[in-house]
Amino acid sequence: MFGFLKRLIKRIFRCAAMSVAVVALLVGDSPQTFVRAEERQASFQVKGSFLRYEGRLVDFDDTSFRILTPDGLTVQFYWIELVDADAARMRASLGLRVTKAGEPDEAAPHPTEAGLKVTRLADKAEWYGKEEAGLSTPETVVIKSRGDRFSFRRAEVQIESLMLGIKDIYSEKELYELMLAGQVPRTAKEHLRVAELCSRYGLAGKAEEHYRFYELLSREDLPEGRLAGYVNKMRESFGDAQVKEQLYLMGVELMDEEYSKALDRLKTIERDFGEEELLNELKEVRKQIDLARQWSINTRIVESWRVILRSLLRTKATDRGARYSDCMEFAVHGVVVETAARVALRVGVEASPVKEIWQSRTSDSVETVDYGRGSWLVEASHLGDVEQWWDRASNAERFNILMGIHAEHNMRVRLKTHKNCPTCGGTGRVKPGGPPPVFPSKDQCTDCSGLGKSRVVIYW
Fold first, then answer.
1. What is the tens place of the pLDDT at every residue in 448-459?
2. How many CB atoms lie within 10 A of CB 30?
3. Which CATH number fits domain 4-93: 3.90.320, 3.90.1200, 3.40.50, 2.30.30?
4. How many CA atoms does the CB half-sphere of 79 hold within 13 Å?
5. Phi and psi for 43 in degrees, rounded to 5?
6. Intrachain domains 4-93 and 112-172 with the same fold
7. CA distance 157 to 152
8. From CA 117, how far away is CA 192, in angstroms rounded?
9. pLDDT in tens, 233-242
10. What is the Cα–Cα distance from 154 to 143, expressed in whole angstroms?
11. Torsion angle of C-alpha atoms 343, 345, 347, 348, degrees rounded to 10
């Protein structure tokens, strides 16, 4: 049986291979910013590992915790590293917010770490970062700031301790690798999880990319989504690591509609990995690529618009720092301009005709969006504090509201209707009897905020 120290060393080496120094940190004499824990033991498992870690819980906050190992080391772990069941169990026992299994803690602030503000005395220039204790000396201080290292003579600077968002400390590449946790997302659900984590850590570009992949993989009626899904299934069938890597890259190229690159990669795979079963699968991929390339330019524009539009609205919905009023403005106006520009870039035409083609589209199918608990924001905003509710709403609730607002202003609406709130039965009150409450009131239904109904829009 391995000792804890041996397990910890293996963990550190695993993280180093991923170039993610943030995943496991040996904590020195940093300023105390955690809540001191009661005397209790911690036992948990980290994602991607079969080992269980044990130790005495030292202290914790909403983003991480520290334990004292049997070997006398103080080690810091982030809640997002733990398997969902262990994270939920431990957070509940400590009185912290617990989210549904597999979902990030959407309303929580960005993770922070103890850091330094370094001000150069000569010109008052400022740097923010985390001290590299192993590199600092009594004469100099070395900090890591956004992935880069800076060294200062202590006599020439003023140093203050403070809490920093981890985006101020680590590079975007390091943060992104932390989001992936060593696993390449394959399914729509996995892309959605990575997208929400990237958004929470401020990686908006990566978040939008994974939201787009999520939308594509959720739409098997689209050539790109059908092809990417098929290639993902192929990856699970073949054990060779190089084949898996090449198939993954081909799947990304297909979702980006880079068919020429995908075909070149397909030829490389055929040449270098000539297994009969693999070659037969690749013949089907080639056939599907040929079908996708035959799509008319207008069809590609319309379907690309749908996917990119939804990915942009999802990205905005998961921006926890954005105010409700700003998000509404984006849903009504901003997203149209940005979608047109991105579709034009992908398809290779001007933005103006792209918008005209989208607006003149025809369709035999309709889509439905339910505002849910947020219906009162649109129909009766006097029922509560709009911005406060928006801050506390889940990413899914925020997306539905943005999608509904956008549909009502920019899509072709076939029907606006309502359905009763399932909690209060349409009364808007906590108790079924008695006079209607005066809003805002403690008697109003907490699910619909007293509106009593949910707004539903059917559009195309």
1. 888 889 999 999
2. 17
3. 2.30.30
4. 28
5. -140, 125
6. yes
7. 7
8. 35
9. 787 777 788 8
10. 12
11. 140
Structure tokens at 169: 């400390």
Residue 224 corresponds to which tokens in the numbers above?
């790109």
Q: What is the 3-state secondary structure (H, E, C) of the chain?
A: CCCHHHHHHHHHHHHHHCCCCCCCEECCCCCCCCEECCCCEEEEEECCCCCEEEEEEEEECCCEEEEECCCCCEEEEEHHHECHHHHHHHHHHCCCCCCCCCCCCCCCCCCEEEEEEEEECCCCCEEEEEECCCCCCCCEEEEEECCEEEEEEHHHEEEEEEEEEHHHCCCHHHHHHHHHCCCCCCCHHHHHHHHHHHHHCCCHHHHHHHHHHHHHHCCCCCHHHHHHHHHHHHHHHCCCHHHHHHHHHHHHHHHCCCHHHHHHHHHHHHHHCCCHHHHHHHHHHHHHHHHHHCCCHHHHHHHHHHHHHHHHHHHHHCCCCCCHHHHHHHHHHHHHHHHHHHHHHHHCCCHHHHHHHHHCCCCCCCEEEECHHHHHHHHCHHHCCHHHHHHHCCHHHHHHHHHHHHHHHHCCEEEEEEEECCCCCCCCECCCCCCCCCCCCCCECCCCCCCCEEEEEEEC
- How far is the CA of 355 from the CAs of 332, 336, 337, in angstroms? 15, 8, 9
| Assigned CATH class of 112-172 | mainly beta
Domain ranges of the chain: 4-93, 112-172, 177-296, 365-460
pTM: 0.60
221 with 247: CB under 8 angstroms?
no
Q: Give residue 54's identity as a one-letter amino acid code.
A: E
Q: Quick check: 122 pLDDT over 80?
A: yes
Q: Fill in the amino acid letter for 166.
A: I
Task: Give the pLDDT score at 363.
Answer: 72
**Do the strands 367-370 and 453-459 form a parallel or antiparallel pair, or are they unpaired?**
antiparallel
Residue 383: both structure tokens together: 């029922």
Beta bridge partner(s), residue 49: none
Is pLDDT at 400 greater than 70 in this prediction?
Answer: yes
